[in-house]
Write a structure and sequence with these properties.
With 373 residues, the chain is α+β, with helices and mostly antiparallel strands. It has three domains: 10-57, no CATH class; 68-188, Enolase-like, domain 1 (2-Layer Sandwich), CATH 3.30.390.50; 258-367, Aldehyde Oxidoreductase, domain 3. The protein is built from eleven helices and 13 strands. Strands 4, 5, 6, 7 and 8 form a five-stranded antiparallel beta sheet that branches. Strands 2-1-3 form a three-stranded antiparallel beta sheet. Strands 9-12-11 form a three-stranded antiparallel beta sheet, covered by helices on one side. α3 packs antiparallel against α4 (149-162) and α4 (149-162) packs antiparallel against α5 (170-188). The two termini are 34 Å apart.
Amino acid sequence: MAKTRGFQSDLSTLLLGANASVTYQLAGSANPVTTSWGAFLADEKLTAFKGLLLSITIPFNTTESKDLTTVYASYKTSIRPENSHALLNCAFTVRLRNAGGASGTHATFSDEKDGLTFAYGGVAYGKPGNVAVRASKTEALLRGQPVNEDTLQVAMKSLAAEFKIEGERADYRQRMVTSLFYKFFVGLLGGKTSVPVASAANPTNAPRQLVVAKQNFTFDEKIHGPVSKPIPKVEGGLQCSGEAVFVDDMPHFKDSSFGALVCTTVARGTYKGYNAKAALSAPGVIGVVDASHIPGENVASVFREGEGRPVLLAAGTKVLHYGQPVAVIVADSKQHAEAAAKLVKVDVEYNKEKDGVPITTLKQAIDQKSLYV
């Protein structure tokens, strides 16, 4: 998925940083091919990859010696600590010569081609295969250099210039590029350095003041029940072991049909209807379903005030939010359904005086009593 669909895979970054290799066999080919994970991701000829991944190999450090040490570390930052893909993650592998003491102050980076690997995920978007990339310019700059504070400063400047991040939380992710590398490098220095860094949480590198907080509360088990008690997640064991079965893991039944939502692209207005002529003539499309095809009550809300939130918006009714479903394109595959859904033209009439402006804050929703559950 990282190779062919641009999926932001945390694992892909870890494999790239570990100098992993992959063996695959293309459909119609008699011979398997082995290449590095980085070359596999970067090969544009394999964007529409059709074949099998036979194996992924992470090299063992079989050449370790008294004067040669390999260090691998990975880091991740995400919106929440669990069940969340990384906003940005990275994996670093370095081979150190003459590491000396535990502090590593006498070490130098290897001058071998793959002696340094700095892999980042979440710094590049656009086309499949470029989600996990290497900081090749910084790698080349550090080869054969001593592991000291001067080299750290050079590396930080190089990394800041090598990646120019765009999109969601761009400024935060840009700072994390150097912040996470700084954390790794300081570890090579034994955990101590006089080189300051502007972190993602402290972009101006301002001195941190001592913060003290105290909160007193009473807990009544009869009233609050299991709150604050460590209770295992029911499906946690299956998910951690990799045995949990998700929808995409299930085999499709013969003659299965797939649906893709057609949604509004505005948050306010009156929905007038849609034009699915181009979509219905697209490859693999079976038909289209809208509010008129729902035999029962067209309400998706569990608890509702007034009209509630409809499953599919009916013509002549108000748009409640951006991305509200109005129809479903049905096709013989997920890809055909999603492609055809993009061809549907949705007609929404907007009048600022009549419809007002979109609600963008919780306070506005409460003030206007716009609450849907």
